[in-house]
Amino acid sequence: MHGMRFDHSFGLWFMARWLKPDLMIESGAFKGHSTWVLRQAMPNTRIISLTPRHPEKYLKKGPAYVDGNCTYLAGKDFIDFGSVDWEKLLMKHGISDPSKVLVFFDDHQSELKRLKQAHKAGFRHLIFEDNYDTGTGDHYSLRQICDQSHIRGVWWT
Q1: Is there a domain that residue 18 lies in?
Q2: I need a labelling partner for 19 at 20 to 30 A (CA). Which of 47, 98, 104, 113 fits?
Q3: How many domains does the chain have?
């Protein structure tokens, strides 16, 4: 409950296996399920997880996953995706080409905002899980924006 189900988990696993990124970033980890899925897909690939509350905090209340080989920017070390100095952080992890990084967004922020931030940082491989514009009323999904802008080369599930 309150997390990815089987079909989205499989989709994330499949895309990570297919892309074979040099690094994986997740924005929004909650209890660590998506971290676990990424780890199962790519056992030796580094993961950076940005999440306000560290998944270990949930271990006291029930199942959660904490990856020993993941760099967590969580709790007092939390930084929002849009505020990270990606060039510096990627270099720290030995990554010079952001186009070889997979970014997974499950942080319930605006897809368009995250798309702009990721593009500015040079990321090309993005997966969105229930990210949407916060606030009231209707919102444009990335699919609607791309369809109306005649953007092609984007896959939708």
Answers
A1: yes
A2: 113
A3: 1
Has residue 156 been placed in a domain? Answer: no
CA distance 75 to 22: 26
Question: Which CATH number does the domain housing residue 19 bear?
Answer: 3.40.50.150
| Domain presence at residue 1 | no
pLDDT tens digits, residue range 54-92? 998 988 888 899 999 999 999 999 999 999 999 999 999
Burial of 89 (0-12, 13-18, 19+ CB in 10 A): middle
pLDDT tens, position by position, 128-154: 887 555 554 445 566 666 665 555 555
pLDDT digit string, tens, across residues 86-106 = 999 999 999 999 999 999 999
Q: Which domain holds residue 39?
A: 6-149
What angle in degrees, to the nearest 10, is found between the helix axes of 111-121 and 142-149?
70
- Cα–Cα distance, 71 to 58 (Å, whole number): 18
